[in-house]
């Protein structure tokens, strides 16, 4: 029990003291993950809605593929992105390896299938309710998509949170493509891995608690937005 | 790790550029592919600020196992290699990936193990005899299993061949720190560089059992990546970095790194090939 309390104390001290290095790492974690989740939403929401709201040949295959890709191993994604961005890789001349941009790319690849697959389910359920109305009103394809996405907005916020949770907690991909470079690509999860490898287990766990607190804050903010959106809908 | 140095402004600036992507055409920093032992021991935190203060050149470090560092550098994903596997470094130069290899400093490997010492190797000075005793006792031994400099050194010490496949021989396939954590968790012996061990925070009763064998000598070398192979390499900045490390100033900075009063790296520049 002593250790557990020591870890809690260390976590609280870390947050309260507001160590500049820690804030820098938290800011980079947020910057990378929020950018990746935003990009993943821009791709995944329309993609998932398309598969959810339309019938087309090969649709079942698309659904299976999306659901499978939700389980992409982060290390594999990290390696693929490394091979693309490495100097000898096809995108090597861009010089993006070991930058936050590389980490955003890797996390976007990880999160997009999650957003798309969950959006597909949400939109498909909603479409079942709306199908008759759409047909009787003769609603066009574009209007159908936007109406479904708009009406599912509240559920889709939870979808985005699922993506955020996956990205912010992920270490396998970002440590390969980011390199865990101090002050450049070091984020919360790679710091935890580094402190664990130094045998500083208490500090590593305390950092884990800080990461958890960060996730709580993000979730609370989104749920707050969600609650006010629901209220607005009933006014 | 979390020492003061960067101000609040930097945090705010970080937030302000939340979505901005940095351009990286011809950077004004050098990227070092390095052994984890140099990062985990705190050595770079001691050394690099001195270099940057004197030259204005920023240094970024990717700390991975020596095997992975060499592969990354061969791909051009680094300007200079700073590792501890002489044979692999020489092969790197011979294959045209590096221009030249320089000795920088040395320390030694040590065999660590549990207090109980089931194979009875404590106090010995012959590493090969100690490993043979571990094998004879069937006591657990944790190997890096990752082609790192430490892993290569360990494999050279098994006089009757690496006991791959033996139930008591655990290949972690992980870095030094992760392997130490595993060894400690399972009560297994393991070979570690002294720097990582001295700085390691989770010893849980483990201690150094065998040290002082000349075969446990651990030489660190530096190899600039060949700009003829990878034109984007900042060969000009790398030259300054290498010259500084090998100069009396750099060598003194290396000798000045101490953890709990103990010197962890001993400069020995002069050799090259």
List keywords for this structure.
heterodimer; A: 235 residues; mainly alpha; 10 helices; 0% strand; B: 273 residues; alpha/beta; ten-stranded mixed sheet; two-stranded antiparallel ribbon; 11 helices; 12 strands; globular; disordered N terminus
Secondary-structure content class of chain A: mainly alpha
Strand content of chain A: under 5%
Number of helices of chain B: 11
Coarse morphology of chain A: globular
Radius of gyration of chain B: 20 Å
Counting DSSP E segments of at least 2 residues, the number of strands of chain B comes to 12
Tally of individual helices of chain A: 10
Q: Give start-end ranges of low-pLDDT stretches of chain A.
A: none
Largest sheet of chain B: 10 strands, mixed
State Rg of chain A. Answer: 21 Å
**What would the average pLDDT of chain A be, to the nearest integer?**
92
In percent, how helical is the residue content of chain B?
Answer: 25-40%
What order do the helices and strands of chain B follow?
A: HEHHEHEHEHEHEHEHEEHHEEE
Provide a descriptive summary of the structure in words.
The complex is a heterodimer of chains A (235) and B (273). Chain A is mainly alpha-helical and 235 residues long. Chain A contains 10 helices and no strands. In chain A, helix 4 crosses helix 5 (100-137) and helix 4 runs parallel beside helix 8 (172-178). The termini of chain A are far apart. In chain A, 44% of the residues are buried. Chain B has helices at residues 8-16, 36-40, 43-55, 66-74, 86-94, 127-137, 149-157, 176-186, 194-199, 235-246, 248-255, and strands at residues 29-35, 58-64, 80-83, 102-113, 141-143, 169-171, 189-193, 207-210, 217-224, 258-259, 262-263, 266-267. In chain B, the strands form 2 sheets. In chain B, strands 1, 2, 3, 4, 5, 6, 7, 8, 9 and 12 form a 10-stranded mixed sheet that branches. In chain B, helix 10 crosses helix 11. Residues 3-25 of chain B have low confidence and may be disordered. Chain A binds chain B through residues 14, 19-24, 27-28, 30-31, 34-35, 38, 86-89, 92-101, 104, 179-184, 191, 194-201, 203, and chain B through 1-8, 10-11, 14-15, 17-19, 21-22, 24-25, 27, 31, 36, 39-40, 60-63, 72, 75-77, 175-178, 180-181, 199-203, 230, 232.
